């Protein structure tokens, strides 16, 4: 016999059952809704497939997802915490066009590098793979390269070409770290430069365009030349003079290039080789080639001006980064070197080493518009950088120190700069004038 419940209690039970049913239906709907949302692009984060060193560190299918974690350690007893790589990189490259996905160490070289060695940092696009491979074979030292892959229907095909390139040359897995940038923006040169430098694994980096051939044994010369090494260690920029062949055809095969300064000077005297882009002297003439031909020791660049764009070795820490607002051809490297110079970093020229351009036809169409835009941007940038660094130096009480000299020399060319800084100095009670 079923015991009779009092009617109110029975009613209550019925309501409870109903409420339970309604609740579980809602819960199920909610659950499926979340599942559905989870299958939409954003949340579901897939791990990179970690493979052996020297292999791709993730598979193409999961390209937009990463679960790399940056660990944040604090001294001893404080808890360690973690920040996702994506969050870190989003801040690191927050001045670039977004969305942009940086994949650090897409390939990582198996070697450990000497912290005192020079990492070549460079950028390549898909048409430069062959010349890059030559650079790798020639240098046989650490290289950190940024490769841009367009986020379009060719993405996977282009990535697989990258794999082919990496696997085709055994020196790649010895020396080359590849960082891939996947987005829809062509020619974010300064961002790509920063990517290559950021992930470089030694204390010095050289900003080199991929089509330049380092003709000499740079690493050996640096190890022998104590004075040059000291200049480098002090944080100065070290310049490798740049040359090119007069006849394009002579400049195609780097195997035929001179291997020391004597042979180079002979070719210059025979007028077969000339200083790089001598139709635009301001790009390189501050290197003072006449002095270079006649010296055996490192010397300081005395005639820097804002169009100077030599190939330099720099210290990784403490050197300003390339401004990422420069996208496309024109002024991007000059702007980078300008900021470095006015930040108080001097340029010095290495006596034995040099680079020669390997000829190739230029595509000029897209370049023209971009150059025009960047020229304008560069004018504004110089003014802004001058005021930014000047006020930093003032506040840091360095306005009357040698560190400010490069800035004063360059920025006093800007109309009104000297007067404004004098007022600023007076108002903040800082010694010294511009
Ligand atoms: C991708 O591949 C296509 C077709 O092979 C090529 O035209 C294009 O330049 C490549 N793009 C990039 C960014 O590598
Ligand atoms: C570099 O070239 C420019 C333009 O021809 C010239 O005005 C300048 O004096 C040259 N500088 C040096 C250091 O030779």
From TrEMBL:
Major localization class: membrane
GO cellular component terms attached to this protein's record: membrane
InterPro entries the UniProt entry points to: Xyl/GlcA_transferase
GO biological process: protein O-linked glycosylation via mannose
Keywords, comma-separated and alphabetical: Glycoprotein, Membrane, Signal-anchor, Transmembrane, Transmembrane helix
GO molecular function: glucuronosyltransferase activity; xylosyltransferase activity
Origin: domain of life: Eukaryota
Membrane spanning stretches: 12-34
Name of the featured protein: Glycosyltransferase family 49 protein
């Amino acid at each position: 016999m079923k015991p009779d419940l009092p009617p109110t209690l029975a009613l209550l039970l019925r309501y409870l059952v109903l409420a339970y049913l309604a609740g579980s239906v809602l819960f199920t709907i909610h659950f499926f809704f979340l599942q559905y949302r989870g299958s939409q692009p954003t949340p579901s984060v897939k791990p990179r497939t970690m493979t052996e060193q020297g292999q791709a560190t993730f598979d193409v299918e999961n390209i937009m997802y990463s679960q790399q974690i940056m660990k944040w350690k604090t001294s001893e007893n404080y808890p360690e915490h973690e920040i996702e790589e994506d969050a870190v990189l989003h801040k690191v490259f927050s001045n670039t066009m977004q969305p942009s996905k940086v994949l650090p160490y897409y390939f990582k070289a198996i070697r450990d590098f000497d912290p005192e060695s020079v990492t070549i940092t460079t950028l390549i696009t898909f048409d430069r793979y062959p010349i890059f491979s030559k650079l790798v074979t020639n240098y046989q030292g650490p290289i950190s390269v940024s490769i841009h892959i367009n986020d379009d229907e060719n993405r996977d095909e282009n990535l697989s070409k990258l794999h082919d390139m990496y696997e085709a040359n055994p020196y790649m897995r010895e020396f080359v770290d590849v960082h891939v940038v996947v987005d829809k923006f062509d020619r974010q040169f300064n961002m790509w430069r920063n990517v290559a430098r950021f992930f470089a694994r030694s204390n010095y980096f050289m900003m080199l365009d991929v089509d330049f051939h380092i003709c000499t044994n740079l690493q050996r010369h640096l190890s022998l030349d104590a004075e040059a090494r000291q200049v480098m260690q002090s944080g100065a920029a070290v310049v490798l003079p740049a040359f090119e062949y007069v006849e394009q055809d002579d400049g195609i095969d780097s195997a035929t290039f001179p291997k020391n300064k004597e042979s180079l000077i002979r070719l210059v005297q025979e007028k077969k080789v000339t200083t790089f882009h001598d139709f635009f002297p301001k790009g390189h003439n501050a290197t003072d080639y006449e002095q270079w031909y006649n010296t055996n020791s490192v010397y300081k660049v005395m005639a820097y001006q804002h169009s100077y764009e030599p190939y330099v070795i720099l210290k990784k820490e403490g050197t300003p980064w390339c401004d990422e607002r420069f996208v496309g051809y024109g002024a991007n490297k000059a702007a980078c070197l300008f900021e470095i110079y006015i930040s108080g970093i001097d340029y010095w020229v290495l006596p034995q080493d040099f680079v020669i351009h390997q000829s190739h036809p230029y595509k000029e169409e897209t370049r023209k518009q971009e150059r025009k835009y960047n020229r304008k941007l560069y004018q504004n940038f110089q003014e802004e950088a001058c005021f930014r660094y000047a006020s930093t130096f003032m506040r840091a009480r360095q306005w009357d120190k040698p560190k400010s000299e490069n800035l004063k020399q360059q920025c006093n060319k800007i109309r009104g700069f000297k007067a404004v800084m004098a007022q600023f100095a007076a108002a903040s009670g800082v010694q010294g004038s511009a």
